[in-house]
Design brief:
Number of helices of chain B: 23
Strand content of chain B: 15-25%
CATH superfamily of the largest domain in chain A: FAD/NAD(P)-binding domain
Radius of gyration of chain B: 26 Å
Mean pLDDT of chain B: 95
Structural class of chain B: alpha/beta
Helix content of chain B: 40-55%
Number of strands of chain B: 17
Low-confidence stretches of chain A: none
Radius of gyration of chain A: 30 Å
CATH class of the largest domain in chain A: Alpha Beta
Mean pLDDT of chain A: 93
Distance between the termini of chain B: 59 Å
CATH architecture of the largest domain in chain A: 3-Layer(bba) Sandwich
Number of strands of chain A: 25
CATH topology of the largest domain in chain B: Rossmann fold
Strand order of the largest sheet of chain B: 10-9-13-11-12
CATH architecture of the largest domain in chain B: 3-Layer(aba) Sandwich
Shape of chain A: globular
CATH superfamily of the largest domain in chain B: NADH-ubiquinone oxidoreductase 51kDa subunit
Largest sheet of chain A: 5 strands, mixed
Oligomer: heterodimer
Largest interface: A-B, 38 and 33 residues
Low-confidence stretches of chain B: none
Largest sheet of chain B: 5 strands, mixed
Distance between the termini of chain A: 45 Å
Strand order of the largest sheet of chain A: 2-1-5-3-4
Chain lengths: ~675, ~575
């Protein structure tokens, strides 16, 4: 064979005459995307992904079969080729149905690989689980305790009986890892020499710091408070998240070589522009530490506390003078934290004033329940009309009775005052917890939103200032749950990483396939109820700041993790289809239409075939025929209904299969799954 | 005297066998011979009976029924035809044939397809004799001089394929005839095999000699039983006459021949899928390269041409390539056979020289549009082709000129559409066909045509979306670029051409929920004109959905909610009172 030279995407490469363009490119380290090709088998040409333009040829060629010749000029990245390739991928995805990743992970703002770590926990490999979790969440013991777990809301196990206790299992694994002799420590890449300043050591800042440090950058975290953790440290009460747990996790982050600088407040004892000068990139993750005002008379009285201030005081070891009777205004988690903390500070009568009903209250159900158990009185459908004082001190609160009207823009029913209907509750103090605001003073000319938060481009985490990024409660829509802040911290880290390397960055939505399911799909699954988390009795716990929950026993945790249905595709990590779909930024919904009948069948000895994931590349058919010499599989039907069917469909298992598993191994998607 | 009955499939379908039987009975004991021939191509006049005096055609009788047998035999016996004047073909209908130039169909409707000597009487197998006296290269040169191009649709120069196969070195080369005629509305190949099988055999033998093939295979669709039967007989006769087999005509050239009947998948008309099917595998196209000329059937060099191409070969060798190339245009030589169907007055097989305008084929030969309706478009090339509107009817039959319109020459399907044809519905018809017939191998064709079909279905059901036309265009482009074989790559053509020439009809379906041809029933509303309605109650009785109410002798009313738009009321109303909008 003679040596020939061809040009692929402007690069001259060499190969043997008679070989295909695709093979020569691959040998020279150039990957031309393909889904139905295997070097071991004859070219087939089904997928239409390996298309390229050949100079002097009006038609696009299939590089898997096109024989290369000396002087051939090939381009795989022209607009026409990219469009054709995307169209092929979009067509395939329009008839591809599986869960690329589990619905739990999809609903997690940080897209944590829930299925992956649950499997490790089920196997008793906690540190390995933590390794998976920390790819997205660097403080799992803390997040696991306090997260409102959107993952669980999407858990398919709810179609069987109850969702998995995903959040707490995360904390369980992280606790075990922290207790172990050698807790998981991520590998740090070679020092890049780049410096990043992170302003704010809360969940967003810590997530970004962790990720950027792993990439080898030099990271300094500035925080206004004496300790790191942000709202986790100063907002969440001890009984929900013991500070010792958080400390262990922030210490572990610090140990990666990140510099923590506490008690630094930008604009007061540090200048923002100086930081910008000193560092290659800056992340603003200062959180939202100001309370929103109620706006009624008497708010200035002695004995009116802001929820955030109150919790911060308590979390720094002080007990504010709140008296015996306390009214907490608000229906969110901060209100719950405040009322339960008030009890622990010695209050005897605690009221929660909320203008809607329990159904609309944004606080977690379990929080409301536990607060009620501890003796908190809920006054739903009331709103403070006036805080009545005596000698400048709170004496009572006058409540306007409310009723629910039409649904507002948020979809919640709008509370309306019932004319002339009031009641008065005598209290010693009022704690307001109706929302958080960001105080973004001291950041020079950084652009703010109307709400006063930092304006951030959600595609790339950037602010209007060069090299300045923002994340967490301090940006755009404002305060949200901690895992949202972690997710934004991760995104910012990616954006900063790209910025430091001089690469463009844009967040994108994965082209994930999602399966529609209902209870019917799970009728065969044996019911296994969710493990019950034991909590300390209400009477006992309300007197102390000790953690309310007792945690899972080892057996409970393993059992609970084993309940996972493993909805996500087993082949996700190796699936070529989703990789190309993402790389080509395809529009999965473009060619939406009817799909194949979707079912799984098991006719080969230890292989389960998922029709929804099969894209008819024919690799399994061909490997069985050409390599193994058996030819047990084949195509059947015509047109859209064409399917790969075992040739002999009469028996349960196909006769003659030697269980060589070659078909499953060569499958480019997760259509063939080896059952162990 | 001889009485000859046209017994192609279409003639038989029209009752030719009954006529044959009746004529035989009537001619019993008389000095009249009854014989058969194939199809002369005038489908609209079948059954056709010709009366010959020796070799001279005396009278051509059309639309003959078995009841006419007695008087036909009497007339022939007396050589006086005044009594059967009503059966004699009209002057105007004779033009259907007289305006044609017949090479591929030269014997169709003239010779007896079951009699090899009949074929030989008209010079049959003389061309083979001549070819065998030439070198294979000289034969290829002659074909090159003729300018003959593949009549199956692609129009690839025949000599080039032959030459490539000639140059491929192997002891066992194959010459394959593609008779898997699958386009809806096309029946040229069937007619040739049924009517003149020896012309095919002789053409193939010359091709086999030219490329050095050891075996000839005809891949015929199993739905053509008569063609298979006649071809089997012809092969047998040709073998016995020494034209097929060892040392043919003592030239030293040997070649076998056989028939393979295919199960009727449209895609098997694609040459590489045909080879797969010949090998006993599922009919799915192979990647090219390698081309069949290098590696085809059983991985041996193979040459594939279609029936019509081969049917021209013997004529070219006998008369010279130059003579053939005198016919036609600069780009396209010789003649082309079309199956003229649809809303045309005279439907049938038409062979015309390249360069004739579409208008002449449709109006002069085809006699224009049926029932005085207005011409709308002509679809050429079946599901792979495209439609050509009125304003382009002066386009000449020429590979290049036709493809410039967006249509293709194709294998010869020529479907005429009138004003009552919905172009969106027409596109859907072809897409339904290609989507159904896609072999399922490549993504673009399998899923792409399905998506196109879904969009077109939405449109005809009045559920078209604002951006559907753009989506269709995008799909068309993607499929043309990405499909593996010709079937897929050309599948968007009907949509592309209707979008090009009749885009307003798409827009009307989407935005106005209106079908101007009133073919898309989901878009129609039926109502009764109270002034015209006499209250005869007939429509109410016929309505299958019980949607019509009214008292006798009073105007009736259609309940639009109940109406299923079947049109039964409209058909039955004698007063034209049903208004369809």
């Amino acid at each position: 064979m003679e040596k020939i030279k061809i040009t692929v995407n402007g690069k001259e490469i060499f190969g043997k005459s008679g070989d295909t363009v695709l093979n020569i490119a691959a040998e020279n380290g150039i990957e031309i995307p393909n889904l139905c090709h295997s070097k071991e088998l004859k070219s087939f040409g089904a997928c239409g992904i390996c298309l390229a333009e050949e100079e002097g040829n009006k038609k696009l060629i299939r590089t898997c079969s096109a024989e290369a010749y000396d002087g051939m000029i090939i381009n795989t990245e022209t607009e026409r080729v990219k469009r054709a390739r995307s169209a092929a991928l979009e067509l395939i995805m329009s008839d591809h149905e599986g869960d690329c990743v589990g619905p739990c992970s999809l609903n997690c703002p940080a897209h944590t690989d829930v299925q992956g770590y649950l499997k490790k926990i089920a196997e008793g490999k906690d540190s390995e689980a933590v390794e998976i979790i920390k790819k997205k969440i660097p403080i799992p013991a803390s997040i696991g305790r306090i997260c409102p777990h959107p993952c669980e809301a999407n858990c398919r196990r709810r179609l069987v009986e109850e969702p998995l206790s995903i959040a707490y299992l995360k904390a369980f694994a992280a606790d075990k890892d922290l207790e172990s002799k050698s807790p998981f420590v991520p590998e740090i890449e070679k020092e890049s020499g780049k410096k990043v300043a992170i302003i704010g050591g809360g969940p967003a800042g810590l997530a970004a710091a962790y990720r950027l440090r792993i990439k080898g950058h030099s990271v300094t975290v500035f925080d206004a408070m004496p300790e790191m953790g942000g709202m986790l440290r100063y907002g969440i009460p001890e009984y929900r998240l013991p500070k010792a747990v958080l400390k262990k996790e922030t210490d572990a982050i610090e140990k990666l070589g990140i510099v923590f600088k506490n008690n630094v407040k930008i604009g007061e004892n540090e200048d923002f522009e100086n930081i910008r000068k000193e560092f290659d990139a800056v992340l603003i993750a200062i959180g939202a530490w100001k309370d929103a005002k109620i706006g009624c008379a008497g708010e200035e009285l002695d004995g009116v506390f802001s929820g955030i201030d109150f919790l911060r005081e308590v979390n720094t070891g002080k007990i504010p003078e709140i008296g015996k009777k306390v009214a907490v205004v608000g229906g969110g988690n901060t209100a719950m934290d405040a009322c339960r903390t008030a009890l622990r500070c010695g209050a005897e009568e605690v009221y929660v004033i909320y203008r809607r009903t329990r159904a609309e209250a944004p606080a977690e159900d379990s929080e409301i329940e536990e607060a009620a158990e501890e003796g908190v009185t809920f006054k739903f459908l009331t709103n403070p009309d006036e805080i009545i004082g005596e000698d400048g001190k709170v004496k009572a609160v006058k409540l306007q009775v409310m009723e629910l009207g039409e649904a507002d823009s948020s979809g919640r029913k709008k509370p309306m005052p019932v004319k002339g209907k009031f009641e008065t509750v005598e209290v010693d103090s009022v704690i307001t917890a109706i929302g958080q605001k960001c105080d973004a003073k001291g950041f020079g000319s950084v652009e703010l939103t109307q709400k006063g938060t930092v304006l951030m481009n959600e595609q790339n985490g950037a602010t209007n200032l060069e090299g300045v990024f923002a994340a967490g409660d301090a940006v755009n829509k404002g305060a949200s749950i901690a895992i949202d802040a972690v997710a934004e911290g991760n995104l910012a880290a990616k954006a900063i990483e790209a910025y430091l390397c001089g690469m463009p960055f844009e967040a994108f939505e994965h082209a994930y396939s999602k399966r529609e399911v209902s209870e019917k799909d799970y009728f065969e699954i044996v019911k296994k109820p969710r493990e019950k988390m034991s909590v300390k009795p209400a009477g006992e716990r309300k007197k102390t700041f000790d953690e309310v929950i007792n945690g899972f026993s080892e057996a409970q945790a393993r059992n609970e993790a084993k309940r996972c249905l493993e909805c996500g595709c087993h082949d996700f990590g190796e699936c070529k289809l989703i990789r190309y779909a993402d790389e080509n930024r395809i529009n999965t919904g473009k060619f939406k239409g009817v799909k194949h009948n979707i079912f799984t069948e098991r006719k080969l000895i230890s292989i389960e075939r998922d029709q929804g994931k099969c894209m008819l590349c024919g690799l399994c058919v061909r490997v069985c025929e050409e390599k193994i010499g058996k030819g047990l599989l084949g195509f059947r039907g015509r047109g859209f209904k064409t399917a790969i069917k075992p040739e002999f469909e009469h028996g349960f298992e196909i006769e003659g299969c030697a269980n060589c598993l070659e078909c499953a191994n060569i499958c480019p998607t997760g259509a063939l799954k080896i059952i162990k | 005297m001889r009485i000859i009955i046209g017994e192609g499939s279409c003639g038989i379908a029209a009752g030719a066998l009954k006529v044959h039987k009746a004529l035989e009975k009537a001619a019993e004991g008389k000095n009249i011979r009854i014989g058969i021939t194939g199809c002369v191509g005038m489908c609209f006049l079948e059954p056709i009976v010709d009366i010959y005096d020796e070799e001279k055609l005396v009278k051509r009788l059309v639309k003959v029924s078995e009841n006419d047998a007695q008087r036909i035999v009497c007339a022939a016996e007396k050589n006086d035809y005044s009594d059967i004047d009503d059966l004699v073909i009209s002057k105007e209908d004779e033009e259907f044939l007289s305006l044609q130039t017949r090479i591929a169909l030269r014997n169709c409707g003239i010779t007896d397809p079951t009699a090899i000597d009949d074929y030989q009487k008209r010079g049959g197998y003389k061309a083979l004799e001549k070819a065998l006296s030439m070198s294979p290269e000289e034969v290829i040169e002659e074909i090159k001089a003729s300018g003959l191009a593949g009549r199956g649709g692609a129009g690839f120069p025949t000599w080039y394929k032959w030459s490539a196969a000639r140059k491929s070195e192997s002891k066992t080369k194959y010459l394959i005839c593609n008779a898997d005629e699958g386009d809806p509305g096309a029946f040229m190949d069937r007619a040739v095999i049924e009517s003149d099988p020896h012309a095919l055999i002789e053409g193939m033998l010359i091709g086999a000699y030219a490329i050095g093939a050891a075996e000839m295979i005809v891949y015929v669709r199993a739905e053509y039983p008569l063609a298979i039967k006649r071809l089997e007989k012809a092969i047998k006769d040709a073998k016995e006459a020494g034209f097929i087999g060892e040392n043919i005509l003592e030239s030293g050239f040997s070649c076998k021949m056989r028939i393979k009947s295919g199960a009727g998948a449209f895609v098997c008309g694609e040459e590489t899928a045909l080879i797969e099917s010949l090998e006993g595998k599922r009919g799915m196209p192979r990647l090219k390269p390698p081309f069949p000329a290098q590696s085809g059937f059983k991985d041996e060099p193979s040459n594939i041409n279609n029936v019509e191409t081969f049917a021209n070969v013997a004529w070219i060798i006998a008369n010279g390539g130059k003579e053939f190339s005198k016919l036609g245009t600069e780009n396209s030589k010789g003649t082309k056979v079309f199956a003229l169907t649809g809303k045309v007055r005279k439907s049938g097989l038409v062979e015309v020289p390249m360069g004739m305008t579409l208008r002449d084929v449709i109006y002069k030969i085809g006699g224009g549009i049926k029932n005085g309706k207005k011409f709308k478009a002509v679809q050429l090339g079946g599901p792979s082709g495209g439609c050509i509107p009125e304003e382009l009817l002066d386009t000449v039959i020429d590979y290049k000129a036709l493809s410039e319109t967006g249509a293709i020459m194709g294998s010869g399907g020529m479907v005429i559409m009138d004003e009552d044809t919905c172009m969106v519905g027409m596109s859907k018809f072809f897409l339904d066909f290609t989507a159904e017939e896609s072999c399922g191998k490549c993504v673009h064709c399998r899923i792409g045509t399905k998506r196109m079909q879904e969009i077109l279905t939405r449109m005809v059901n009045g559920e078209g979306r604002e951006d559907d036309v753009l989506l269709l265009e995008e799909l068309c482009k993607a499929i043309k670029d990405g499909a593996l074989c010709g079937l897929g790559q050309t599948a968007p053509n009907p949509v592309l051409t209707t979008l090009k020439y009749f885009r307003e009809e798409y827009d009307e379906h989407i935005f106005e929920h209106r079908c101007r041809a009133k073919e898309c029933t989901e878009l129609l509303t039926y109502s009764i004109d109270a002034e015209k309605c006499r209250g005869c109650t007939l429509c109410a009785k016929k309505c299958p959905a019980k949607a019509i109410e009214g008292e006798v002798k009073k105007p009736h009313i259609i309940d639009k909610e109940k109406c299923i738009r079947c049109g039964a009321c409209s058909k039955v109303c004698r007063f034209g009172a049903v208004v369809v909008e």
